[in-house]
Amino acid sequence: MKTARVFVDTNIFVYSMDASTPDKQVVASQWLRSLWSSRKGRTSLQALREFYNVVTRKTRPGLPRETAQALVRDLLTWNPADDNPVILNSAWQVEDRYGLSFWDSLIVASAMQQGCAVLLTEDLQHGQVFEGLITVKNPFIPTE
C-alpha cells in the first residue's frame, strides 16, 4: 500500500487541525505529510468543501476563513475529483450495493475514479473493500 494512491476523507483533514484531539492530530498530520511528499494523496472537492465548513464553523476555536481558504488552495494541487456524471452513476451503484449514505457513496466513487487503492477515513468500516478495488483504512486503529 505504500506505493498506492490514497484517498483522504474530510475527517482526516479536520483532525490534522484539531488540537482538541492531540493523538488523532498527530496521526492525521503524519499521514498528510507523507502523502504530500510522496504525491500519492487524492481527495475530492466534496471533502474539501466539508473540511472548510467544519474548521471555520464547527470546531472551537475555528480557523479564520483566510487560513482555511489557504489550506484548501494548497490541497487543490492534489487535483481533487469533482462530481460529474460518471461519479454520480458510480455513487448510486455503491449506494445500492453496499447500503452506504449517498454522501459516503460519493466519496467511494471519487476514490475509485482516481484509481485509489486505499480510502483513509474514520467514517467507514476499517478493512472493508469496495468493488475489489479500494480498502478502507482507519488510521486511528492501532496496527499490530
Question: Top keywords for this entry?
Answer:
single chain; 144 residues; alpha/beta; Rossmann fold; five-stranded mixed β-sheet; 6 helices; 5 strands; globular
The percent range for helix content is: 40-55%
Mean pLDDT figure: 94
Q: State the CATH architecture.
A: 3-Layer(aba) Sandwich
CATH topology: Rossmann fold
How many domains?
1
Number of strands: 5
H/E order of the elements?
Answer: EHHEHHHHEEE
What is the rounded distance between the termini? 16 Å
Largest sheet: 5 strands, mixed
Supply the number of helical segments: 6
Assembly context of the chains: single chain
Shape: globular
How would you briefly describe this protein structure?
This protein is an alpha/beta fold. 53% of the residues lie in helices and 10% in strands. It contains 6 helices and 5 strands; from the N terminus they run βααβααααβββ.
Question: Any overview of this molecule?
Answer:
By secondary structure, the protein is an alpha/beta fold. It contains six helices and five strands; from the N terminus they run βααβααααβββ. The chain has a five-stranded mixed sheet. A hairpin with a 3-residue loop joins strand 4 and strand 5. Helix 1 crosses helix 2. The chain starts with 5 loop residues before the first strand and ends in a 7-residue tail after the last strand.
List the helices and strands and how they pair.
Elements: E1 6-8, H1 10-17, H2 22-38, E2 41-42, H3 45-58, H4 65-75, H5 85-98, H6 102-113, E3 118-120, E4 129-130, E5 134-137
